[in-house]
Automatic annotation (TrEMBL), chain A:
Keywords: DNA-binding, Sigma factor, Transcription, Transcription regulation. It comes from the Bacteria. It comes from Euzebyella saccharophila. Pfam families: Sigma70_r2, Sigma70_r4_2. InterPro entries: RNA_pol_sigma-70-like, RNA_pol_sigma-70_dom, RNA_pol_sigma70_r2, RNA_pol_sigma70_r4_t2, RNA_pol_sigma_r2, RNA_pol_sigma_r3/r4-like, WH-like_DNA-bd_sf. NCBIfam families: sigma70-ECF. The lineage of its organism: Bacteria, Pseudomonadati, Bacteroidota, Flavobacteriia, Flavobacteriales. This is RNA polymerase sigma factor. Gene3D superfamilies: 1.10.1740.10, Winged helix-like DNA-binding domain superfamily/Winged helix DNA-binding domain.
TrEMBL record, chain B:
It comes from the Bacteria. The lineage of its organism: Bacteria, Pseudomonadati, Bacteroidota, Flavobacteriia, Flavobacteriales. This is Uncharacterized protein. The keyword Transmembrane applies. It comes from Euzebyella saccharophila. The chain crosses the membrane at residues 74-97. Keywords: Membrane, Transmembrane, Transmembrane helix.
Length: 169, 149
């Protein structure tokens, strides 16, 4: 397969992969690296690409598994690093300014959701995939997807109400 | 008014049972400027979803590297090619060697046979001269008879 053919397949959804990676890994650089690695993996399998009936869903599943593995090894290995990253982010002026914006509250709220809820909310409300696709991508049953989605939306609403009522920012 | 409908859609939305077109309707509604106060709280959700969808992957993929990898894939085959060459060499080399050996044997055989033939000739020659020696007796006897006469 030619590079241009590969790029033609991948370009329509590479931003979606990146956004899912960023949702899970939070850091922009890590998400960029992860996306690059996933796309390179896909390129190394490019001869087989014709045999996947849905390359986009396949790539999404790869992204999900890759990022969850990353998070697991991070938790096991360098907790300290994660912690210092977080502190650094928190102390940067730009982040503080952003946090005052009510829209970025939602981002902060989503960071605290369980991984599965994060992914379901990302794929449905941001990327607007239908349920069948989400089931395929996350390897979940339809009812489980609906339950996770409902919980995620309610959790966001609840936190948003709290902040709104206390008038933070 | 459409507010009723929006409120119904919202409660369906939080149960996770809205369809994609219904969710599009909700998004469109909350992206408007004039929203009733009691619904304004939901607005950041929908604006955030829209805003975050504009994030882009900006890294360039180093796809060319893969070509180098492709050429490296041939390296294991080099050993196969080499062993095939050696086997072919052995096969034809053995044939050539055997042929040479055969020629040598033939030459040796021809030499032996020739030598045998020449030996036989030489033997018969010497036997011949013995017989001729008898003839000499005759000649001498004949000459004696001639001389007496």
């Amino acid at each position: 397969m030619q590079q241009s053919d590969f790029l033609k397949i991948v370009t329509p959804f590479q931003d979606k992969l990146y956004r899912l990676a960023k949702r899970l890994l939070v850091s922009r650089e890590e998400a960029e690296d992860a996306t690059q690695e996933i796309l390179m993996k896909l390129w190394s399998k490019s001869k087989k690409i014709g045999s996947y009936n849905n390359v986009e869903a396949f790539a999404m599943t790869m992204t999900k598994n890759f990022c969850l593995d990353r998070l697991k090894s991070k938790q096991a290995g360098n907790l300290k690093l994660v912690h210092s990253n977080y502190r650094e982010e928190g102390s940067s002026l730009q982040k503080q300014v952003e946090a005052n914006d009510s829209v970025t509250w939602v981002q902060r709220i989503m960071e605290d959701l369980p991984e599965q809820q994060k992914m379901v909310l990302q794929l449905r409300d941001v990327e607007e995939y239908d349920f069948d696709e989400i089931c395929e991508m996350l390897e979940m049953k339809p009812t489980a997807v609906r339950v996770a989605l409902s919980r995620a939306r309610k959790a966001v609403r609840e936190k948003l109400m709290e902040k709104h009522n206390y008038g933070i920012g | 008014m459409e507010l009723d409908r929006i409120e119904k859609l919202l409660s369906k939305y939080f149960e996770g049972s809205t369809s994609l077109p219904e969710e599009a309707e909700l998004k469109a509604f909350f992206l408007q400027d004039d929203i009733p106060a009691h619904l304004a709280e939901y607005r950041p959700m929908f604006t955030y979803f829209k805003k975050t969808k504009q994030e882009r992957f900006t890294k360039v993929l180093p796809l060319q590297e893969e070509k180098k990898l492709n050429s490296k894939k041939w390296i294991p085959w080099l050993s196969v090619a080499a062993s095939v060459l050696i086997m072919v060499g052995l096969f034809f080399g053995k044939g050539y060697y055997d042929q040479k050996q055969l020629e040598k044997e033939k030459a040796q055989y021809a030499y032996k046979e020739t030598k045998k033939a020449l030996d036989m000739l030489a033997e018969n020659f010497s036997r011949g001269t013995e017989k001729v020696a008898y003839l000499n007796e005759f000649v001498e006897a004949k000459e004696k008879i001639y001389n007496k006469n």
